[in-house]
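so my prof wants the structure for this chain in the tokens format not the other one, which i didnt know existed until like an hour ago. anyway here's the sequence
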Amino acid sequence: MTEPTAPEPAAAPEGGEPQPGAASRASARAQEWLAQLQRMIEEVAREAAPTIREVGAKAAELTAVAAEKAGPIAQRAAHATGEGGTKLAERARHLADELRREEAAASESPEPAAAAGAPDSTAAPAEEPPPA
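here's what i got, hopefully its the right format
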């Protein structure tokens, strides 16, 4: 391959007008460079195609392995999330019941200390949730 050189500017005669032949020579040279560049791009693409296909095949294999391994992990995560959600719901219900009992006890007691949230010695002990 030959190295392209920059097109020479059209020579202008003393009158300041470029010569018509110089512009067409520069255009022909630019067309030649574009054609040479196009051939180079096509050659690179032709030589790279097998490598690109191999990279694509390897990526597909890695995706398959990742998908096979992700399935069981996702199932375990879903199971753990389900169990955790059940435990959280149970604790939230227990807390709601406890808060309602405290509110009911506070509204029945005329003492200011009971209304302010002081512990009531006559109230039933709060139930503890079963151990997890």
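also thought this was worth mentioning. The chain is about 70% helix and 0% strand.
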